[in-house]
Amino acid sequence: MAAFPEGKSEERKHKNNPNGSGASQGQWGRAWEVDWFSLASVLFLLTFSPLIVYYFIMSCDQYHCSLTDPITDVLMGNSHLSDIWNKTPSLSWKAANIYLFWVTFQVMLYILVPDFCHKFLPGYVGGVQEGALTPAGTVNKYEINGLQAWIITHALWFANAYYFHWFSPTIIFDNWIPLLWCANILGYTASTFAMIKSYFFPSNPNDCKFTGNLFYDYMMGIEFNPRIGKWFDFKLFFNGRPGIVAWTLINLSYAAKQQELYGQVTNSMILVNVLQGIYVLDFFWNEAWYLKTIDICHDHFGWYLGWGDCVWLPYLYTLQGLYLVYHPVQLSTANAVGILLLGLVGYYIFRMTNHQKDLFRRTDGNCKIWGKKPEYIECSYTSVDGTKYYSKLMISGFWGVARHFNYTGDLMGSLAYCLTCGFGHILPYFYIIYMTILLTHRCIRDEHRCSSKYSKDWKRYTTAVPYRLIPGVF
Ligand code: NDP
Question: Do residues 241 and 310 lie in contact, with contact meaning Cβ atoms separated by under 8 Å?
Fold first, then answer.
C-alpha cells in the first residue's frame, strides 16, 4: 500500500533519508534542556550503576551468584558491609598491566592496521566508510576494521592457549575484580576527558550540546563525535573495542575456568559461547551499518557511552558465563536443542528485520521483500528551515508484523542466553530483564521522535502496523 502525503508536487529534497538526517536532527540525541525527571534519572544512574555492577560481580565472588544472600547476611547481622568490602580483591599491578596491554593493543589495531578483510571477504563492508550526517552538517569518515581486530585478537588468544602458553586462558576470570577497577578507571577517564575536551578543544564546536547542567552533560555527553586526530573516534572505539571484542574472550576465559575446575566444559557454556559469539561477530560484520544506528549517529559521547562500554557491557553482558563457572549446568539434549533453536531463530529475526529495512531504504523501495515488491507508507516531514522532505515507512516483511520486530528477535536471543543457566538463580536473568527495559524504552523514545517527525503519516503507519514488539500483545 503506497499512500502519498499532501504536497507531493513539492520539490523532493531527500527522496530517501536513511538516517533521519539533516532536517530531523534537532529531535535526536540528548535534550537541550534538562527537566527534573531527566536530572533525577541521571543522578540515579551515575550513583547506582557502578554499585549495581559491583554488587553482581561481588555476589558471584563471595555468595555463589546469589543476589539475596549478601542482603540477608547484612540484615541478619552475620556480616557487615565492611566485611564484604574487605573480602573484595583490590586493584593489582598484574591486573593494571593486563588491562593496559589490552587497551593499548586494541588502540593499535584500531588506528594502525587498515582493514584488509573487505579485500577478500565477499559481502563484507570495511575500510574507510562514511557515517551519518551530523546535526552540524558534517559527514565523518571512519576506518571500519573491527572484524579484523576481532579476528587478530582471537587468533592470538587461541595461539596462546594451544601453542605459546604465555598466559593462562583463565587469566580474565582469575583477575575479574581487579580488572573491574581498571575498567572503571578507563571509563571515568574517557568520559571526563571527553567532557574537558568539549570545553577546550572540541573536534567540531557546532556539534556540541551544552545544557548548563554539569551532571547531565557529563552523563549524556557534550560532543557528538569527539576525536583525537583524524581517525581516533571515541564513539566507534569505545562502542566496539575494548568492550565487544572482549565479550567473546571473556566467555572463552569462563569456559577455560570450567575446564580447569571440573575437567569439562558444559553444553550450557558452549551454548553461551556460540550464541553470544554469533551476536558479536554479527556486530563486527555489520560495523559499517552500525554507523547508522542510534548509538553512533544520534548519541553524544559522555559517561553513558564511555563508562557503559568499558564497564557495564563487559561485566553485565557476560553474567551467564560467569554464573556457569560457579554453577556448571549440563542441559538435557532436548533443552539444549530448544535453547539453541530459540537463540538462532531470534538471531535470524533480528538480522533479517534489520536487513530488510536497510535494503528497503538503500534501494528506495525498489527491491523484493519475501519475494514481492514491498508495500510502504509515503511520509513527509518539514525541517526547522521549512524545507519539506520525503521518506518511506515499509509495511512489508517483518516490518509489517510489528514496528520493532528487530528488537523482538534481539530479545528472543537474549532470553536464550539466560535459559542456558537453568532456574537456580535470578542473576543470569539480569540480561533479559535489562534488555527488555532498554529496548522498550528505546521503542518509546524512537516512536516519540518518529511521531513528531512524521506526525499524521506516522499515525497512518501505526494504524497499518498496530503492534510494537509482539503482534496482539504489545
Ligand atoms: P532501528 O534499526 O529499528 O531504527 C529505527 C529507525 O528506523 C526509525 O527511527 C526510523 O528512522 C526508521 N524506521 C522505523 N520504522 C520503519 C519502517 N517501517 N520502514 C523503514 N524505516 C523505518 O533502531 P536501532 O538503531 O535502535 O536498532 C538497531 C539494532 O540494534 C536493533 O536490531 C536493536 O535490537 C539493536 N540494539 C542492540 C542493543 C544491545 O545493547 N544489544 C542496544 C540497542 C540496539 P527514520 O527517521 O529514518 O524514518
Answer: no
Most confident segment among 15-24, 92-101, 284-293, 385-394: 92-101
Ligand 1 atom 21: residue of nearest CA: 393
Q: Please, are residues 327 and 264 in contact by the beta-carbon 8 Å criterion?
A: no
Three-class SS string for 259-310?
A: HHHHCCCCHHHHHHHHHHHHHHHHHHHCHHHHCCCHHHHCCCCCHHHHHHHH
Question: Rounded to an integer, what distance in angstroms lies between the CA atom of residue 438 and that of residue 51?
Answer: 19
Q: Which atom of ligand 1 is nearest to the CA of 461?
A: 18
Nearest CA owner, ligand 1 atom 1: 293
- Using CA atoms, how far apart are residues 45 and 78, in angstroms rounded to an integer? 30
Is residue 273 scored above 60 in pLDDT? yes
Of the candidates 103, 154, 150, the residue with the CA atom closest to the CA atom of residue 124? 150
CB 243 within 8 A of CB 313: yes
Q: Is 104 exposed, middle or buried (0-12, 13-18, 19+ CB in 10 A)?
A: exposed
Separation between Cα atoms, residue 339 and residue 419, nearest integer Å: 7
pTM over 0.85: yes
Query: What's the pLDDT score for residue 51?
Result: 97
Mutate to test the pocket of ligand 1, among 247, 389, 410, 448 (most ligand atoms within 8 A of CB): 410
pLDDT tens by residue, 50-94: 999 999 999 999 999 999 999 999 999 999 999 999 999 999 999
Pocket mutation for ligand 1, best pick of 275, 282, 286, 293 (most atoms within 8 Å of C-beta): 293
C-alpha cell at 417: 542466553
Is the confidence at residue 217, as pLDDT, over 50?
yes
pLDDT confidence band for 19 (50 / 70 / 90): very low
* CA distances in angstroms from 147 to 121, 144, 153, 282, 311, listed in the order given: 11, 8, 10, 9, 21
CA-wise closest residue to 247 among 291, 312, 301, 304: 312
